[in-house]
Amino acid sequence: MNDQPSAPLKLYMLLLGSKAPGRHVEQHDFFFGIAASLPELVPAIKTFWRGAVGNLHIDGWREVNTVQGYSIVVVLKDENTVPSDNKLFFINLGGYTAGQLEEQHYVILSVNTDRSQAIQNAKKAAFFKTNTIASVKGANAHIDDKYGIDVDDIYKIEEMLPKAQKDKYHIAIAPGANLCEDEVHLGYFRLDRL
C-alpha cells in the first residue's frame, strides 16, 4: 500500500478565531498542520480548539513554502531521515503602545539553528524596537509563546504539529534561490465552507 498522497503535502499556518462562552471579545491562536489541502485540516483544527461552540473559524492562513530565503518542504519520515541543522521557529512578539489599552502582537517565522539564535534575530525586528514604553515598568517588548509564557518558550514548528503529524512527517529546510514570498490569505473563513 502506498502511503504517499496523490497531491503534495503542504505545511499550513492558520490564525484561528473563536468567541468562547462568557467572553466579550474574540480569542485567537495559531495552528500548524500538514495536509494536501486546507479542508483536510478541519478535523485536526476542531481537535486543537475543543470547546469552540459553532463559531470556530479561520481569520487568515498561508502555505508555508518560503521563510527567510529557505525552501520549506514536508516529507515522510523514514529510517533514513536526517534532521536538518536549521529549524523552523514560531515566535510571538508582544509589546505595548502608549495610550492604547491592549498588548500588540507580531508573529515571526524564523529559520535558525537553535532557540537562542531565533530569539536574538527576533529582537532585531522593528516591532521589538518600537513597542516598548521605556518609562513604564513591565511595558517592554517581549517574546511570548502562544500561551503567554516567557522568552524561553518559543516553539519549533515541528513541536506545534498534531501528534500524528509529528510522528509521520519531517519539515525539510534548504537554502533556495529566487523564492517567492508566501501568499497570506486574510478574511473570515468558515470551516464548513472550506
Structure description:
- The protein is of the alpha+beta class and 194 residues long.
- The protein is built from five helices and eleven strands.
- The strands form three sheets. Strands 2-1-3-11 form a four-stranded antiparallel β-sheet, with helices on one face. Strands 6, 7, 8 and 9 form a four-stranded antiparallel β-sheet that branches. The protein has a three-stranded antiparallel β-sheet with strand order 4-5-10.
- β4 and β5 form a beta hairpin.
- The chain is globular, with a radius of gyration of 18 Å.
- The model is unreliable at 145-152 (pLDDT under 50).
- H-E order: EEHEEEEEHHEEHHEE
CA-based gyration radius: 18 Å
Low-confidence runs: 145-152
Cross-sheet strand order for the largest sheet = 2-1-3-11
Separation, N- and C-terminal Cα atoms: 29 Å
Major beta-sheet overview: 4 strands, antiparallel
Number of strands: 11
- Determine the mean pLDDT: 85
Number of helices: 5
Structural class: alpha+beta
Strand content: 35-45%
- Helicity range: 10-25%
Shape: globular
Number of structural domains: 1
